[in-house]
Write a structure and sequence with these properties.
The complex is a heterodimer of chains A (60) and B (810). Chain A has three helices and no strands. Chain A has 60 residues and is mainly alpha-helical. In chain B, 44% of the residues lie in helices and 17% in strands. The longest helix of chain B has 44 residues. Classes of the chains: A mainly alpha (60), B alpha+beta (810). Chains A and B meet through helix 1 and helix 2 of A and helix 2, helix 4, strand 5, helix 6 and helix 7 of B.
Chain lengths: 60, 810
Amino acid sequence: MTIIILLIGISLTIAVVFLLIFYWSLKSGQFDDSYTPSVRMLFDGKPAKGESNAQKKLGK
Amino acid sequence: MTSTEVITGLKCYHCGQPCEGTLWSNDKVFCCYGCQTVFEILNENDLCEYYSLDQNPGAQQNKVNEESFAWLDDKDIRKKVVEFDSPGFARVRFYVPAIHCISCIWLLENLQKLNKGVLRSEVNFAQKTVGIDFDPASTSLGSIAIALSRIGYPPQVNLDSQDHGKKQNKDKSLVLRLAVAAFCFGNVMLFSFPEYLGLDHADRHLMRIFSFLNLALAVPVFFYSGADYFRSSLKSFKQRQINIDVPIAAGLLALFLRSSYDIISGTGPGYLDSFTGLVFFLLIGRWFQSKTYESLAFDRDFTSYFPLAVSRLTKDGWKPVIIYELRRGDQIMVRNMEIVPADSTLLDDEAYIDYSFVTGESKPVKATRATIVYAGGRLVGAPVTLVVEKKISQSHLTTLWNHDAFKKVTESKYQKTIDKAARTFTWVVIYIAAATALYWQLYRPSEMWLVLTSVLMVACPCALALAAPFTYGSMLRVFGRNQLYLKNADVVERMASIDTVVFDKTGTITHGSHPEVAFHGALDTDALRAVKLLTSASSHPLSSIVSQSIKVHSAGKILHFKEVPGKGIEGTINGHLIRAGSAGFVGARPNTDTENAYVYVAIDDLVKGYFSIRIAVRKNIKGMLQRLGRKCVALLSGDNDADRNKMRALFDPSTALLFNQGLHDKLAYVKDLQAEGKNVLMVGDGLNDAGALKQSTVGIAVTDDTGVFTPACDGILAGERLGQLDRYLALARTSSSILKTGFGISFFYNAVALSFAVTGHLTPLVAAILMPISSISVVGFSAMAVNFIAKKKLQNNNQNIRKSRLRSPS
C-alpha cells in the first residue's frame, strides 16, 4: 500500500506546480487582454515585395 | 482625373463614406484630403495590408495640428505621462478611442515602420490603449503622438489617464483566491472518495492519511480563500449590523473546527469536502457578480477630459505648463478644439465657445473681449489668448466636485435586500441552535457539542448568499446585451426600487451633437458644392454644421472671401458670387421662428433658400414617457425655455418643466425629491448633470458613442435605447421577486438539512450531497429565470430597433 502514498505525493506535487504556474501567469498579465492576442497571431510578416497569397485570401 | 457628376456607389477607400470621384490616388477614390493623406502615408511605408484585414477601416480625417502635441515633450509633463523612463528606453501607454477593428490593431502594432524610434507597440483592444516602447534618443513623445494622429489615431492625454491598473489588481486577487479554493476542493473530493464508497474498514491507516491530507488542503482555503468572510463579519460586528457574511462565517468556522477536531481526535472523517466546496461556490458567486466593462469608465470627473497641459506666456515665450500650476493672472493660449482649463477672461475680440460638455447644449456661445469664459468650454475657431481668473480647483465647474454628494460612499445608504434577509435568518438560526443545544444538554450531554456544530454548519446560508449574485449578475449581463451598461450588480437592486424619474433635456431627450439640417429651396449639385466650399472656409459653428451636412465632395478656389462677423460669409466660386448667412445679409425675408437656427443662401444676389438647423428629439421617446406616466416627475434643462412648448407636448401634464437649471440646481432638485422619500433615477448626459447623477439613487448617462465622455454615473445607456427605459426599469423590478423565490428554495434546503442536524443524523455524506445540490439549484434557477423573463420583456423592442435600423440608411 505504500505505493499509493508515493503516488499521492507525486500527484499532489504536480497539482501544486500547476497551481503555481497559474499564479505566475496571472501575475505576469497573461489574462489582462483576452481579445488582442487572438487577432495578433493571424497577422503574418509581409513578404518584402509584391502581394502575397495570404494577403489575397484575407482581402475582400 | 476629375468628374463633375456624383458617381453613385463610390465609397472612400479609407473610411467607407460615400463620395464622388474627384480625389484619386493609385486608382483608389477618397472622400477628402485627410483620408488620402493617411492612405499615402501608409502606402509610402508599405503598410497597405491595413486595408485588407477589415473593410474600410479608417475614420474620416480632420486636419492634424502639428503643434497640438508639442507640449508632451516638456520635461514635467513627460514625467507624468510615461510609465518608465531611462536614457535609452521609455514606455508610454496612450488611450486611443479610435481603436475599433482588426486593422487598427495591425496598424498600431506596426508603428515602428512610421516612427523609427519606436521599438515595439502593443494594443490592448478591450481598454483601447496602445503601449509603446521607444528610444528617447531617436524620437520624442510628441512626435509619436503626432505620428499616431496623422494616421487617424490621435491619443487622448488627460489629467486622469495615468490611473489604470488599480481595479485590475483587485480582480486578480479574487481570481487567485478562487483558483486556490478550486484546487483544494478538487483534491479534497478525491481524498474523500473512499469515505463516500464506504471503504473505511478496509484500511484504517490509509484513511487517517487521507483525512490529514484533507486537513492540510483545507488550511489555505480557511486562511486565504475564505478570509474575506471572516474579515467582513468582524467589521459588521463592530458596526453592530448583521450582514449576510455573519452566518456564513459562523458556518465556515463551525465546519472547519468540527472537522479539525474529528480528524485530530480520530473520531471521524470531517466535513472538509463540504467546507472547501462551500467556499468555492461562494467565491464563484462573487466572481460572477463582479463583471465589469473594461472599455467604459463610470467614475470619471472633470479631470478625465481636461487637458494635461496648456500654453502659458512666460518670459521666454509660450511654454506648456501642467494646468494645476496655473495661477490667477497667467496668460494662456487655447487653440481650436482645445478646452479652456480654468475660468478666464478673453483678451481677444471674440471667440466661439462650445459648452456642450458642460451644459449639453451644442450651439456654441459667442464670447467677446473681457467676458468670462468658463472652464470646460471648448474653443471653436482661431486661437485665442485668455487671462486666468481662478485656479482650476476654484472654477465654477470644479467646485461641484467639492460637494458632499461626491464625498460620501453611495453604496451604504441603500439597505440591501440580502442583508435584511440575513438578519432574520441569523436570528432564526440562533434560536434553533440554542433550543437544540438545550434539548441535547438535558437528554444526552455528551453529544451536545457535536449536534450544535452540525446545526451551525448546515445553517450556513450558502444558497442564500448565491441567489443574489447570480440574479443580479445575470441581470447585469442581460442589460449589457441590450446596451445598458451598469457599473456593478448593486445598481440592479437600486434600479428595482426606482419610483421617480428625472430627465435632462439637451443630449438626453434631444440629440446633443447631431442637429437635423434640412435645406428648404432649390440648389443643384454644383451649387451645393460651392456652398460647401464656402462654408468650410469659415470656422463659425453654423458654417461648419452646414458644411458637414452637405454630403458631396467639393474642391476649388474661393475668390474675394469675406466674413462679416455676426452676419455671414461671401465669396466668388466659379464666377458666381455666393453668400450665406442671416436673412438680412443675403436679402431674404427673415423667418419668425426663434426655436431653430437658419442659414440663408443667395447665389448672384438671388435668394435660393435656407438651411434650417434643428435639434431633434430622439426616437421613441414619447411612448416611453407615456408609459412612465406620473413616475416622470421633472425635466431639468440647462437651456432657456425656447423649447417649452415642444417639451410640453412630449411630457405628461404632471411633469414639471424647469429651465435655466445649473449644475448645483439640478443636484439640489434631486436631493429635495429624496428628502421626500423618493428613489430617484436621474437620466442625463453632460457634466452639468454630474452632480444630480451622483446624488440620485441611480444615475444613468445617455450617450451615442460609448467611447466619448460620460460623467460619473451608475450606468451608461446607448442613445437609441432610451425609448425602452421604462421596460428596463420593469425588468429590474422583477429581479426582486426572482430573488425572493431563490431565497425560498434555499430556505427549503436549509430546513431539510436542519432536520437532519437537530436530530443528530447529519453524516458527512448527507452534508456533501445537500450543500452542492442546494447551491446549484438556486444558481440555475436565478440565471434561467432572469434570462427567460428578459427575453419575454425585451424581445419586441429589439425587433423594433432592428426594423428602424434597416429603414434608416446610416
